[in-house]
Amino acid sequence: MVIGDFLDSASVNLHLRSQTRDDILRELVQLIPELRNRAPEQLALWQALADREKLHTTAVGEGLAFPHARNAMGNLLKKPIVVIGRHESGIAWNAIDNKPVHLLFMLAAPSLTEHLHLLAQTSRVLRNSATRAELLKAADPSAAIAVIKAAESRLAG
Asked: 20 to 30 Å CA-CA from 87: which of 5, 9, 141, 142?
């Protein structure tokens, strides 16, 4: 699974403003084109994301979090989605290293298999500290997407 196939500039916000985890999740959910003007579906996805965070944080350290629902979202989505968010000052997220989160990759997919592949691939790509540093400097959504696509290309060899 290639993350780049699911990226769209409209689903990238490099200037998140909210100051709480739940509000950041709302900002990210509102970026999903397939759910625009569908408040009940947005609320359902937000609730699934918030419920997942209550089980265990999706912040993996190094200023990075992968908000995702615990289950497949086939009732809401027809294809996998990746939403990228960046918070300049960082947001408290109960990260394992207790550092604020600056980069967020919200993931959701219609099937569990797609969900797991998406999570694994995103994790592999963002394991690279140089990729994370480039994302922190990306000037606009297109640049952020280019960073991810280039990183995936390097992984593919």
From this structure: 5
Task: Calculate ∠ Cα 11-101-131, nearest 5°.
Answer: 65
pLDDT digit string, tens, across residues 6-47: 999 999 999 999 999 999 999 999 999 989 899 999 999 999
Please provide the DSSP assignment of 40-64 as one string. HHHHHHHHHHHHHHHHS--EEETTE
3-101+117-138+145-156: which CATH topology? Mannitol-specific EII; Chain A (3.40.930)
For residue 75, what pLDDT band results from cuts at 50, 70 and 90? confident
44 torsion bin: left (phi>0), alpha (psi -120 to 50), beta (else):
alpha
- In the chain, domain spans: 3-101+117-138+145-156
How many angstroms separate the most distant Cα atoms in the chain? 42
- What residues have CB less than 8 Å from 18, skipping those under 6 apart? 24, 26, 27, 91
